[in-house]
Amino acid sequence: MNTTEFLMITSAIAPDRPAIAFDGKKITYEEMSDRVNRLANALAGLGVQKGDMVAILQVNCSQYVEVYFAVAKLGAVFVPLNFRAKSDELEYMISNCEAKVLFVGERYADMVNSIRKNLPMLQECICIEGKQDGTLEYEPLIASASPDEVFAEIDDNDITILMYTAGTTGRPKGVPLTHNSFSTYVLTNVSPVDPEIEETNLLTVPLYHVAGIQAVMAAMYGGRTLAMMKQFEVKEWMKTVQQEKANRAMLVPTMLKRVIDDPDFNNYDLSSLKVITYGAAPMPFEVIKKAIDVFPGVMFINAFGQTETASTITSLGPEDHVITGTEEEKARKLKRLQCSIGRPMDDVQIKIVDEQGKELPVGEVGEILAKGPRVMSGYWKDAEKTAKALTPDGWLHTGDKGYTDDEGYIYLAGRGDDMIIRGGENISPEEVENILYAFPKIEECAVIGVADPEWGQEPKAVVVLKKGETCSPDEVMEFCRQRLSSFKRPRYVCFIDELPRTSTGKILKRVLREQYGEPKNG
User: Fold this and answer.
1) CB of 460 within 8 A of CB of 490?
2) For strand 456-465 and strand 442-452, is the pairing parallel, antiparallel, or unpaired?
3) How is residue 467 annotated by DSSP?
4) Residue 416 pLDDT exceeds 70
């Protein structure tokens, strides 16, 4: 099944249901289907054919979804670009994919114009809002085009999206994802549209991120209303939940923490929420514990995946967030809630291997490898990186360290380059960070390894204190001394105002190592 059929089926079964709620307006599935056909015909008139690359640079908006389905209907390839990218990164990505058409938001038009002379393959720019010199206008383009249904020969294994990874080091890597990459997940995990059942899914994750695209696919197939926010803002998020009576939401851990810590949290009616999915970065135990308490009756799901896997490959389900049973069962569930990313999805194989690629037994830490129909076939135009990422028989090196327990649950132990090795002992930064998050004065933290002549490495805590709090390194180290094995506790602590993060909330430990990697307090 290709992804264009998601919209086609839902618009036939529930034509009058709102497909998108955005910026105070709603558009039904029937209206959206009409606009998508018009846009696809307009793009065909501009010469877009099967296999051509069509890029977009904009924050979340209803047009973003329209552009994807219009491009997909032509058998062309959709390229969502990171709107936080600098001009040189943007130029690289557009050149690398050889985009023929670029949809651009008004706020990014000047930056695109400044590099357009270096992009000979780029034939047309289409401004999503308003009019800019040298660009076509979005709405007039749609209004002037035919509403006739567009048909193209699309194979399930054709590339539908080329998604660039955030690229914490080096250039962003292009990940080609097929129709099958998304439909395999959706058909297995999402109930199809039901004319009697209505749900609203609140989307705040950026659509250049795989979690955002996965949410769109699930909503279109499931006949859900997609309530979209341009970007996350905590009070606007709570206002939108209340206004749209959102049933589902996906948040990265930093977003969830800001919601539950907001002083106005109890002033909003958030009772419509039934499911909150979180992921994209490690979840501090204290945050999820508090979230479970303040959102009674909400089902929480920890979803773990990568751009290279198109969507979720492991999940810690709602039942794992309910701490009941015998004392032994409660202890086991608490440990899973602190460190586990759950069990593999039905269509995914996972194994833990050592540095030689040998599969490790239960309990031993190694690299997490994944295999399945949703895993990419290789990076775009980069055979060298592909060879490093994929084994000859199709196993993806995730770059994450972890281990399994005797029930098949997978536990993260850090990124490969984040693991701290002290005197031959592996130290998981996440384990130390979870302890630090229980310290009442700490707002956020990260643990890195710093060089030590005797032990090789020592743990160092980089800490953001809560507003108005003061603290000494000794206080933090004493707190850890009482709760961690001696070799795991931080030997150094430094205090900073804010942790550097990617756009999806992942802490940039590479930056922390560069800036705070000296073995000293600060």
Assistant:
1) yes
2) antiparallel
3) T
4) no
Nearest partner of 427 among 500, 495, 490, judged by Cα? 490
List the CATH code of the domain at 425-516. 3.30.300.30
pLDDT given for residue 497 in this prediction: 95
Task: Give one DSSP letter per residue of 263-313, joined into a string.
Answer: TTGGGS--TT--EEEEESSPPPHHHHHHHHHHSTTPEEEEEEE-GGGSSEE
Count Cβ atoms below 10 Å from residue 171 Cβ, excluding itself. Answer: 15
Q: What is the largest CA-CA distance in the chain?
A: 73
CA 408 and chain centroid, separation: 24
Neighbours of 258 (CB within 10 A): 17
Q: Which pLDDT tens digit goes with each residue over 220-251? A: 999 999 999 999 999 999 999 999 999 999 99
Gap between the Cα atoms of 309 and 165, Å rounded: 12
Average per-residue pLDDT in the chain? 93
Distance CA 403, CA 200 (A): 36
Task: Mark residue 174 as left, alpha or beta (left: phi above 0; alpha: psi -120 to 50; beta: remaining).
Answer: beta
Q: Return d(Cα 396, Cα 418) in angstroms, integer.
A: 19
For the chain, give every domain's residue range: 4-231, 425-516
Question: Do 376 and 177 form a contact (C-beta atoms < 8 A)?
Answer: yes
What does the block give as tokens for 391? Answer: 């084994």
Task: Give bridge partners of residue 421 from the DSSP assignment.
Answer: 426
In this prediction, residue 168 carries a pLDDT of 45
Q: Which of 343-347, 407-411, 433-437, 483-487 has the lowest mean pLDDT?
A: 483-487
Domain 4-231: CATH class, spelled out: alpha beta
pLDDT above 70 for 354: yes
Rounded to an integer, the average pLDDT of 464-491 is 93
DSSP reduced 3-state for 343: strand
Question: What value does the mean pLDDT take over residues 375-398?
Answer: 95
